[in-house]
Write a structure and sequence with these properties.
The protein is built from four helices and 24 strands. 21% of the residues are buried. By secondary structure, the protein is of the alpha+beta class. The strands form six sheets. The chain has a six-stranded antiparallel β-barrel with strand order 3-12-15-14-13-16.
């Protein structure tokens, strides 16, 4: 066996500490170093699950007021913000030539009435002549040819009377249609409402069906809310809610879910619901204002709960990492609903008092070594001591 010389001992004295230092670095600050983690206990508590969504203020009942025939807007008698009653005159369309047409139609009606009176007189005279010549024919004081002529005149007069009556009915129908057209020039409120927009100003030409004014029923104001489909479990009509308008973020308003839309959005993967105000705020919020809505679900009975951030997926299973000595093990769990504070109730897999890993500086695995810390720092996340 070769004897170690002093030179060998000198080299060993230098190399050995270096190897030990490299080993320590590899085990505690290199790729083999333990992963910094934070833990949280499994606690017993009753959760208040809730849903959160973003919506906008809308009106269930809105009305677009406009003419049924094309024309020019003559006057508007209301402005934005005015409250109107049912049947109130809101504006007037320009009649253009309807006034002259009404005069012509009235003259036509009078003419038809005069023609009817004339036809009635002619028919009465013709009937009288026909009866007279019938009596003369019985006394053989006239010829049959002359009798048939008078009977034909009576039939013609009867037909003329029927045509005059039809002409009078047509004139009356035209007059009623023109009167209805004149009435349609009046823009009337269909119900008690609030004016929210003047779409067209007087002097403008509008087409049939175009809205001149927009009205809403102020008592039908609600919030159209969108909620993530993944977290919308339990959404139902009648649930209480809190509405936070963007104009008053620190002032929650009580509300209630009055409708859950049966049609979801397949693109955004959202469900829609309508939340009504328990008491309408005064003044009314403007239509389209954004609002945050919290919908309270029925409370859960007391049970084990953990932070939602602790839940992980491993090989298609849902569970949490639990510390086992210096290592970790994956524990599958079954969960219930969660609340807006980030707590989720555990139905199976954990007991109260156990510790679960909430955050880790690096992804964990079955062979990971961990080091529990109160909180993770930037150096932890970079894998530094």
């Amino acid at each position: 066996m070769r004897r170690l010389t002093p030179r060998h001992w000198a080299v060993a004295a230098v190399v050995l500490p270096v190897l030990l230092l490299l080993g320590w670095v590899a085990l505690y600050s290199g790729p083999l170093a333990p992963v910094a983690v934070t833990e949280a206990p499994v606690t017993e508590q009753a959760l208040q699950p809730a849903l959160f969504g973003i919506g906008s203020v809308q009106a269930q009942r809105s009305y677009g007021i406009g003419p049924t025939t094309p024309g020019r807007l003559q006057t508007l008698l209301v402005d934005v913000g005015d409250s109107v009653s049912a049947g109130q005159l809101l504006g007037q369309m320009d009649a253009v030539d309807l006034g002259q047409r009404q005069q012509a139609q009235q003259a036509q009606l009078l003419r038809a009435q005069a023609q009817l009176r004339e036809a009635q007189a002619r028919q009465a005279f013709a009937q009288q002549q026909a009866r007279r010549y019938a009596e003369l024919a019985q006394a053989q004081a006239t010829t049959d040819e002359l009798l048939r002529s008078k009977q034909q005149e009576a039939a013609v007069a009867q037909a003329a009377l029927a045509a005059s009556r039809q002409e009078l009915e047509r004139a009356r129908a035209d007059s009623a249609a023109l009167q209805a057209q004149l009435q349609h020039l009046h823009l009337l409120a269909p119900a008690a409402a609030l004016v929210v927009a003047r779409v067209v100003e007087p002097g403008s030409t509008v087409i049939a069906g175009q809205a001149v004014l927009e009205l809403i029923d102020p008592h039908s104001v609600w919030v159209d809310v969108r909620l993530d489909q993944i977290h919308a479990q339990g959404l139902a009509k009648g649930l209480p809610a809190q509405i936070y308008l963007h104009s008053a973020p620190g002032q929650p308003l009580a509300g209630q879910v009055v409708r859950v839309e049966p049609k979801a959005d397949a693109v955004t993967e959202e469900m829609r619901a309508k939340v009504a105000f328990a008491t309408l705020p005064q003044p009314l919020p403007p239509l389209g204002e954004l609002a945050e809505v919290q919908i309270n679900l029925p409370p859960l009975a007391s049970g084990p709960s953990i932070p939602n951030a602790a839940i992980q997926w491993q090989h298609g299973k849902r569970g949490v990492w639990v510390r086992a000595g210096r290592g970790v093990r994956f524990q599958p769990i079954t969960t219930n609903r969660s609340d807006l504070n980030g707590q989720v109730q555990v139905l199976q897999g954990l007991k109260v008092g156990e510790q679960v890993i909430v955050h880790s500086a690096q992804p964990l695995g079955p062979r990971s070594r961990v080091q529990v810390q109160e909180r993770l720092t930037a150096s932890n996340r970079q894998g530094q001591p």
